[in-house]
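Support reply, case 0932

Customer input (verbatim):
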Amino acid sequence: MATANASAGRLTRKGLATRARIVEAAAELMFRHGVAGTSNEDVLAAAHVSNSQLYHYFPDKNALVRAVIEHQADGIIDGQRPLLDQLDSLAAFRQWRDMLVDLQRQRHCEGGCPLGSLSSELAETDEPARTALAASFGRWEAPIRDGLRRMRDRGELHDDTDVDRLALATRTARVLVNQNMNEGAGSPRNGLPFTLSLSCGTWGGNITTENVNARHFVNLTWVSRPIEPKVISEETLFAAHWQAHGR
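Our regenerated output:
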């Protein structure tokens, strides 16, 4: 299994299964709640393992995070194959695009990119994680770049096409379906605020993962005042229960 570390090569089949269960549970929790919002106790409960088992496979949380990064990269790349390995025509790119759009529809557009979420949280503060994330994005980008290079070699792209730059842009672009670009991707018809950023997030050089709009350029000052407490009596709170069942 690709998520196994060097010591995992000496694990038994049962040990590998336990380690994989820990990584899968941690990946799901970190995807939903973030790395900071996922505690060891959360992982223990979700994976149904003991504390000693967790530390047997992962000496600290950083080691677990790196395993999660590799696990998420494996899931993305394997989930997009064989289309990802056949991106050497416009028709193939359209088919790949349609598959990604369908996947987001199945998820109800919730959660975002597993690697992107980890990058937003870790890239600026965790150097080993940033290195692992960069390597994972490189793995994802490689088949895109290879396909574009084959298209250039066949003359379907201009000879001076920078396939490295194009592959990077292809991997990080946001997909908008049947939207009017004259409105900056945001309009009353789709509920998105007007923007010129196309919401490519930090990958596109933005300071935020959401659409950059006028609100981000306004300095706000918040004034708060104490709220008068409203005390609810027991009689009001439990009247119906007491009436039905007694005090």
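We compared this against your earlier run and they match. Two observations from our side: The first helix runs from residue 13 to 33. Confidence is low (pLDDT under 50) at residues 1-6. Please reopen the case if you see a mismatch on your end.
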